[in-house]
Amino acid sequence: MSGRQTLGRQRIPIRLIESQDDMYATFSKRRQGLYKKANELCTLCGVDIGIIIFSPTDIPYSFFSPTMESVMDRYRNPNVPQSEHSRMFEAISRARIQQCNMRLDSILDEKEGLKEREKVLDEIDRTREKGWWEEPIESLNKEQVKHWISWWSSLQEKIKRRMEELSNGAGSSSNLAHGLGLFLSSSSSLFLKGGGGGHANHGISS
Asked: What is the C-alpha separation between 192 and 198, in angstroms, rounded?
């Protein structure tokens, strides 16, 4: 069975977006994309960069590397040498940016590793032989239903014994025993009425 057909990526006409909601969403997305490209340009080419943007609602946004002060000073006074303090502050800022980029690369590598691991686990789960207890109750045959009943009876006995042990205690233990009793009673009723549809994820067999 073929998957659902999609339109895929479509070229957006370069003209003013009439819908305000679409305009705000596009501005936010494109602004983040511009910041990303600016950061890549700084890292790959070792350049300083400054960006100032006013949103459709006149909210100012900016991106500067290494700092706004150093970029603006160089733009306003290109022929004036930097002071020792400015060079030191700029060097510290560059070092911090480099550390952040290295940390970001490490996080992205970890994310890709987790994605690959998740794919492998999904494939293992998809291809492995499933136990009968993982199938919907409606699909069980007669022998499997008997097995379920036997397992459930064994669990009930264990819970009853635990209830008796807790009842010999005091305070919160008695309350817990009462709660287990209510759970046991309601679960037994539900099971006997055939209300256990869905999947059972118990790996216990008798």
From this structure: 15
Count each helix (H run) and each strand (E run) in the chain, helices first: 5, 2
Report the C-alpha gap between 39 and 115 in whole angstroms: 25
Below-50 pLDDT ranges, the chain? 1-2, 171, 190, 192-206
Q: What is the DSSP letter of 80?
A: S
Q: Identify the pLDDT of residue 127.
A: 85
Give the whole-angstrom CA distance, residue 168 versus residue 150.
28
With contact defined as beta carbons under 8 Å apart, do 111 and 119 qualify?
Answer: no
Q: Which residues contact 167 (CB under 8 A, 6 or more apart)?
A: 173, 174, 177
Q: Check: CB of residue 166 under 8 Å from CB of residue 173.
A: yes
Radius of gyration in angstroms for the set of CA atoms belonging to the chain, rounded to a whole number: 32
